Each structure stands twice: as C-alpha cells, then as structure tokens.
Amino acid sequence: MNDVVHEKRRVNDLLWGFLTAAFAVALVRGHMGAGSDRSRLVIDVLVGGLVVLLASAWLWTRRHPARIEVSYELIALRHEDLPRSTELRRGCGDLYFKRSGGRVRFLTLRATESAQVISLQMFDRREVERACRAHRWRFVGDP
Hints:
Layout: E1 3-6, H1 9-33, H2 37-63, E2 66-70, E3 74-79, E4 85-89, E5 95-100, E6 106-111, E7 117-119, H3 125-134
Antiparallel strand pairs: 1-2, 2-3, 3-4, 5-6, 6-7
Helix pairs in contact: 1-2
C-alpha cells in the first residue's frame, strides 16, 4: 500500500497568482509610463510575454498537480497525466533533506547513494518524512 502526499495547492496558487498579478501590474505601469511608442512596444512585448509565461506555468501546475508516492520499494514524485517521474529506490542509501540554492532556498529530498533529487517546494516536509518512516525508509543519523 502506498502513502500519497499531495502538494499544497493553496501555496501553489498563491505563488503563481502573486507573480502573475505583480507582472500584470508592472505591464500596465510600464505601458502608461513609457515615454515613446517604441519603448511602449518593447515593454508590452517583454513584460506581456512574462505575464503569459507565468499564467501558462500556473495553468500547467493546475492541470498536472504533483504528488509524492511512498512505498516500501520507492519514493516517486509524479505529476497527474504525465508518464515521467523522479524516483528514489530502496537501496539508494539513507535519505536526507537539503536546502540548496542562492538567495531563494529550495528544499529537496535526497539519498546518500543516488543522484536523483525530489523537490519539496510545494509539499509539507513533515508529511513526507512521516510517509517515508511509515514505510521504514532510513534517514541519515537514524540509529
């Protein structure tokens, strides 16, 4: 039997909604404050493109919500209706959480003997750890 940890949808929507709204406001302000038709066109194309890109990413995350499936044999990050997944298999060493990145820190789940990395940005870390421990996965430092 698998334990399934679903992403935090509210956090996901807040993040993408905030970014989309912020760039939409920047688009309007940039368009209104541009000094010439040429600069207005550049702002419209560049910032408008970013708004479309952010809205598309938001829609993609809504259509393909992520989940982490934990069983005795593997831990898999899957997206609904997509065939690919990121997996950590039993025997890949002990698990550990790692924060990586520069100014913006990303939480990941890793194993000591695997190059695979499962991003936990939209997941509850405690819920993922509880599901892993329920299936007898070991973490670095466990007795």
